[in-house]
């Protein structure tokens, strides 16, 4: 790491700046985490956070319901264009084009799931089969809100210190029970993804962890396996992507405008395995703005990479850039300008035979190119307004141009969660500033729902009910099997601080989107897992059995599969939702029970091998609980 960045990283440790024109959030009361197998009081650090019980803070221009209970609900089933929360066609002429959604004015509700998640969730991913959320931050600060259950502690490299705090936990998504995990090599600002067997393969980080590959398997007693030196370049603020054959590539990282394939477990790359990537040199601003690039596998096997304000298609076999798309104007989008992006749903036909399956990216928010310089390096700090715009691009078309439109409010440091229905929840973040320690202001407390397909008669955006917990820098999310959204993280501080303007956040929330309006519960189907196929082969038929309370109209059914992303810094690595083509619908195979015959995706470029959450949506309302399915090569 160059001298400039060493000084830059060290600056926040030498001074703290407080802008007197902004308020400080009320102090929180202590909370306790429940440990699996260890419940002694010494296992917890003091002040585990707690529920903020002060008055609800709402933006002046946003109407919200007191107590986050949602608005008055009027349940109808109508055609798109109703003047309620925007209804939509299932897809643009593909598959069940006549599907209609139940309409509701319910704007979501929040619940405090856990007062102390043990660590501030800088990184978050839902692990398949075991239904546990993995949350971790960094070892560099040698502290968290939860201690290891016993020896051995971590020896702090280069010192005589021992660190007995946990920096990684597994959290049961139903009970909140925590299991601390041991980390030796620093995971600060790392990357990751699930392999074909559902294991997390994590890459990079800070200092001694920058060239490390880590693997976490799925079992009740599994702990991290760490392989330092496995990567040839340091990967700090890098992005990992899964290819159609299940292999991983990792792009970029501070001081390394390169990429490499992640080696098999226990193997090490050499410098001959590194590919120089001039695109990351060209997109580097004086304050970067191209770290954590947005990287997605295209349905044709090429790799789409967006950095700063430019984007290209890379052939991962020839290492050639085969196309560059138009520049996206209005500021920078990647770290530290830190907008967010997601891959919009990939929609498949029954008996799919198209040569090219459309794949479209949505990029939202960000900040001016000099936002970090103004907020972090200038005194007094200046917090520039974030971007208000979103943009879509189909990167399977060589003549694609950006379709740009406005969000209801400015946002940076946000997350973009693709919901089981295919719509996008834009959540967390701030309205002004930049990524970095104490570098953002004006938390954007209201999630926004983006309807990715409408009939054009109404707004694509709906402002939903706010949380009362600011989720700023280092926030994260996970889609849960019951279709709620887990929300965690937020740490604008170099360490765990409880008296900062925005304290280090260890509280964990769950958000219930619009489709979980209690009055829509009649539409929620139950997947009969023991009568459904859960191992899939590319292109083959498979059956899912559902049970409900009423007669089912096939035209109102939608089946999607969702790959859980590795979430950090507004980057949702490998997030992918695919709407499957329905081949047959067999009614009444038992009382109130129906079989859906589906076609698995045709190849690994459409859906990489591995685990997916399968949702059955009826009238736009997800099933009671998703089913894990594994796509095998």
From TrEMBL:
Residues 530-631 form the Galactose oxidase-like Early set domain. It holds the Pfam family GO-like_E_set. Transmembrane segments: none annotated. Keywords: Signal. Residues 122-515 form the Glyoxal oxidase N-terminal domain. The keyword Nucleotide-binding does not apply. It comes from the Eukaryota. The keyword Cell wall biogenesis/degradation does not apply. Residues 1-20 form the signal peptide. PANTHER family: ALDEHYDE OXIDASE GLOX1 (PTHR32208:SF93), SECRETED PROTEIN-RELATED (PTHR32208). This is Galactose oxidase-like Early set domain-containing protein. It comes from Gossypium barbadense (Sea Island cotton). The lineage of its organism: Eukaryota, Viridiplantae, Streptophyta, Embryophyta, Tracheophyta.
